[in-house]
Amino acid sequence: MVDNAYSMLRELKEYAKENDVPIMQDEGIDFLTTFVIKHQITNVLEIGTAIGFSAISMALANPKLKVTSIERDEARYLEAVKNIKKFDLEDRITLLFNDALEVKLEDEYDLIFIDAAKGQNKNFFEKFEKRLSEDGFIITDNMKFHGYVDKDESEIKNRNLRGLVRKIKDYKVFLEENETYKTKFYDLGDGVAVTSKR
Ligand code: SAH
Ligand code: MG
Predict the structure, then answer these.
(1) Distance, CA 115 to ligand 2 centroid (Å)?
(2) Does the beta carbon of 48 sit less than 6 angstroms from any atom of ligand 1?
(3) Per residue in 44-89, pLDDT tens?
(4) Core-most of 31, 109, 154, 155, by most CB within 10 Å?
(5) How far apart are the C-alpha atoms of 75 and 80, rounded to whole Å?
């Protein structure tokens, strides 16, 4: 990667920090970029673009890789459009401004990266698994959700947060007990799950 791209990525990270945009943590992004290289991933579907940081990182890691990424928040979508132009990646990153649960896709993907509303993980999974190639992977971020998933429920005072954490736990069980897919859980970043067909 050229030096300039590194400093531009650093700027994206700073922007995210200043504006409370929950982009993937360093450890997670390192894992993801290594993963797409190792498995020669070429067609990614990303649920949750935010400002384009993870999509850009994957595209920079592998020059053959294309990303279709969905974002429902207009301000973030527009910021992502701007960033993808800055990196000159318009030909490899396609952004869709919509709720992922409303989007219709026909293509097949060898990686589906789920990183949007955490309470919807199972809905995203069930909607988009049909678009996964036979030997493809589904990666889900934030399986630990800032450590709350491993905490005792009684320690979580906020009711909404407790509901969300419960949903992530349910999703984890759904993955663990799935008869079609197997999942490996990685204790890095905010917790990353890698799912593939059995
Ligand atoms: N993948 C990004 C971070 C995504 S943050 C990165 O690591 O760089 C999660 C994003 O998902 C937020 O911007 C939020 O607006 C978006 N999101 C949440 N639910 C969504 C949905 N149902 N459809 C589309 N986008 C959604
Ligand atoms: Mg995330």
Answers:
(1) 5
(2) yes
(3) 999 999 999 999 999 999 999 999 999 999 999 999 999 999 999 9
(4) 109
(5) 9
Low-confidence ranges of the chain (pLDDT < 50): none
Does the C-beta of 12 come closer than 6 Å to ligand 1?
no
Whether 163 is in the pocket of ligand 1, judged by its Cβ within 6 Å, is no
Decide: 115 in ligand 1 pocket, CB within 6 A. yes
How far is residue 36 from each of residues 1, 29, 107, 195, measured CA to CA in Å?
Answer: 15, 11, 18, 14
Q: State if pTM tops 0.90.
A: yes
- Ligand 1 centroid from CA 48, angstroms: 3
- The CA angle 29-75-11, to the nearest 5 degrees, is 45
Which DSSP category does 12 fall into? H
